[in-house]
From TrEMBL:
It comes from Streptomyces glebosus. The keyword DNA damage does not apply. One of its GO terms (molecular function) is 3-oxoacyl-[acyl-carrier-protein] synthase activity. The keyword DNA repair does not apply. Keywords: Acyltransferase, Cytoplasm, Transferase. Transmembrane segments: none annotated. It comes from the Bacteria. GO terms for biological process: fatty acid biosynthetic process; secondary metabolite biosynthetic process. This is 3-oxoacyl-[acyl-carrier-protein] synthase III. Residues 255-328 form the Beta-ketoacyl-[acyl-carrier-protein] synthase III C-terminal domain. InterPro entries: ACP_syn_III_C, ACP_syn_III_N, Thiolase-like. Pfam families: ACP_syn_III, ACP_syn_III_C.
Length: 343
């Protein structure tokens, strides 16, 4: 029996609210123009979208709102009804609640029922992990069409009373890197002309013996008053490790497909920040590849970012074009990516 080709039938995304630029964020933190200059120089992210209204503190969207809209748009773009979906997988590092899982809330809103559903707790490689599981499950033949979702909602980590001047560098960087958003893709074993074939998804945990590069606490009723930061990031360790892990992931993907560097027409690189992305792209050295990046406009939306990249890349790809995506998670060091080809 022939192994089916798994295709990306459609991709859609959702951002909340208007973009928040660095000047506005500096005002929010009651910081001087030095803040805006620092972000522009060292981070490179110009805007991000937030679910919280910074003027009022009102949280206007939850993660399920964003994921529902992205999922609905993806299903519509693929011409699918709820009954056509027989597998739903969602990845996020910031679910609305621990229980019920956000994936099941979203499936309920979309009218999807009686199917397998899974939610993954992960960061910047979460979308790759969700796609990997969907890809493998579709290859078994037990499922035909999957809705894969990734998203983040940072409102629980926004403190309107934050004193910018008292933040450590490891805490400060988190205030400017991240934004809210969700993305969704339809993966299918059905023949869909003019769609991209997802050849392979790579996910490898490589954190043995390494300290976490990022820590995000989940405070419960018993420990919410403890004097420790909810967020911490070792940006120096990330700067050192992410380019190397990205190159390793790229090599494994290319070798696994028998592709050479100049065979790749499109590169979807890691999207931690705009400045970091520039360094990684130079390190990867794909001479013919066009870069697809969005982090400077969207901020780092972690689990949602590969969907934003795919949404930009797929309409521009011609038959025979090959694309490689790479993502690295610093929390306990995961390298990941996927290889696809336009049919």
């Amino acid at each position: 029996m022939a192994v089916p080709q798994i295709r990306i039938g459609s991709v859609a995304t959702k951002l909340p609210g208007p973009p928040v630029d660095n000047a506005r964020l500096g005002t929010f933190f009651r910081a001087s123009g030095v803040f805006e200059q620092w972000v522009d120089t060292f981070i490179g992210t110009r805007t991000r979208h937030l679910s919280m209204d910074l003027d009022t503190g009102e949280v206007r969207f939850c993660l399920a709102d964003l994921a529902e809209e992205a999922g609905r748009k993806a299903m519509k773009a693929a011409g699918l009804a709820p009954g056509d979906i027989d597998l739903v997988i969602m990845s996020t590092s910031m679910p609305d609640t621990l229980l019920p899982t956000t994936v099941n809330v979203v499936a309920d809103r979309l009218g999807i029922d009686g199917v397998a559903s899974y939610q993954l707790q992960s960061g910047c490689t979460g979308a790759m992990q969700a796609m990997d599981i969907a890809h493998q499950m579709l290859l078994t033949g037990r499922h035909r069409t999957a809705l894969v979702i990734g998203g983040e909602m940072c409102a629980k980590h926004i403190d309107l009373d934050l004193d910018f001047g008292k933040l450590s560098p490891g805490e400060l960087v988190n205030t400017v890197l991240f934004g809210d958003g969700a993305g969704a893709a339809v993966l299918t074993a059905e023949a869909m002309p003019g769609t991209a074939v997802l050849h392979r998804v790579l996910v490898q945990c490589v954190g043995h013996g390494k300290a976490p590069g990022q820590i995000v606490e989940w405070f419960g009723m018993g420990d919410r008053e403890k004097k420790r930061s909810a967020l911490y990031e070792d940006f120096k360790a990330i700067e050192e490790n992410v380019p190397l892990l990205s190159a390793e992931a790229l090599k494994e993907l290319l070798d696994g497909q028998g592709w050479r560097a100049f065979d790749v027409a499109w590169l979807l690189p890691p999207q931690l920040s705009a400045r970091m992305t520039d360094r990684i792209v130079s390190h990867l050295a794909l001479p013919q590849a066009q870069e697809i990046s969005c982090v400077a406009e969207t901020g780092n939306t972690a689990n949602a970012l590969p969907f934003f990249q795919l949404e930009r890349a797929l309409p521009r790809m011609k038959a025979g074009d090959r694309a490689v995506a790479v993502a690295v998670e610093s929390s306990k060091w995961i390298k990941s990516g996927f290889a696809l080809e336009m049919a």
